[in-house]
Amino acid sequence: MVTGSATAMHLCMAHERQQCCYPDPKRLGHHASKALVEEAYLTPKPGLVDQRGPGSHHDLSLRLFVVSARVLRPYFQSMAEEAQRERVQVVLRTTLGAIGRNAESEMLKVTNATNTHRGAIWSLGLLTAAAATQQSPDPAHICRAAGELARLPDSFHCTEESMKLPPWRPHMAFGARTEAIDGFPHVISIGLPTLRRARAMGVPENLARVDALLAIMSTLPDTCILQRGGASALEEVQQEARRIGDLGGTSNAFGSRVFQSLERIMLQRWVSPGGSADLLAATLFLDQLSSVWTSSCD
Which of 83, 147, 183, 184 has the CB geometry, 3.0–4.6 Å to 129, for a possible disulfide? Predict the structure, then answer.
C-alpha cells in the first residue's frame, strides 16, 4: 500500500525529472555558436567564404566569421535563458529582439562593421529560444515554436531606423523573417532530410553537409543572391543546384563536375548564397541537439 506522503514524494520526483528535461541554456548557446563555426569551416561552398578563400566577397574572411560566431555565443545563451524564464510570448518576443540587436552591435564591433551573421542572429536566435522551451529535441516542434515567436510583434522595433538601412538589408531581413514565420520549411523539409539521407547512404559528413546546402539553395529565394545578381542569377543558381542533386550530389563524379561549374557561375556573377548558409547553420544546430537533452536529463 502506498501512503499519501509516499505518493506526494513520487509526484515531486516525477515533477523534478520533468523539469530537468528542459535543455541547459548554456549548452544551447554553445551549439548555436558551434553550428555557425562549422558552417564557416565547411569546404567547398559555392560563392561563400570557406577554407579556400573569400568566395564572392572582398570584405569577408574565415577568421571574421569564426570570431563573429564565437562572440555571439553568450547572446544565444541569454535568449534561451529568457525563453525559460518568460512564459508570456509577446513579452519574450520583445526581449529576444532587444538581445538580438545587442548581439548585432557586438558582431559589428568585432568585424569592423562588416556583416557576417545578421540573418543568422535572427534565425538561430529564434530556434535557440524555441528549443529552450521544449522537453525533447524534436526539430519539427522546435521550428513550429520558433515560427510562432517570429509571427509576434516586437514592440520596440524601430521601423523608421530600418528604412534608413542600406538597400540590401531590408531584403535580407524580409527573406529571413519570412522563412522563420513559415516555421523554417527549408530547414525542416529540405536541409535536415537531405543531410540525414546522405549520411545513411554513406556519403562522407563534409559532402553530406555540402549536399544539404545545395538542396536548400535549389529552392530558396535567397535574397543575398537576388540583391547582387537579380532574378536571372537566382534562377541559374537554383537550376544548377538542382542538377547536382538530381545527379546524386557532390559525391557523384557527374555532380561534382556540375558543382565546379556552379562555382564558376557564382564567382563570375559575384553572387553568394548567404541566406542558404544561415539555414544550413540552423540545420546543423537542430541536427546536433539530441546531446543537449541527453545531458540535461542524466
Answer: 83
Q: How many CB atoms lie within 10 A of CB 269?
A: 18
**With contact defined as beta carbons under 8 Å apart, do 71 and 92 qualify?**
no
pTM for the whole structure: 0.88
CA distances (Å), 268 to each of 62, 210, 271, 277, in order? Answer: 21, 21, 8, 19
Helical ranges in 151-252 per DSSP H: 159-163, 168-181, 185-186, 192-200, 205-219, 223-246
- What CA–CA distances, in Å, run from 218 to 9, 42, 251? 55, 18, 17
Query: Is the pLDDT confidence value at 165 over 60?
Result: no
More confident residue, 281 or 11: 281
Cell numbers describing residue 28: 544551447
User: What amino acid occupies position 127?
Assistant: L
Structure confidence at residue 157 (pLDDT): 62
Q: Is the dihedral of CA 218, 222, 228, 230 positive or negative?
A: positive
Q: How confident is the model at residue 174 (pLDDT cuts 50, 70, 90)?
A: low
- In the chain, the domains with their CATH numbers are 24-284 (1.10.4200.10)
Q: What is the sign of the dihedral through the CA atoms of 3, 5, 10 and 14?
A: positive
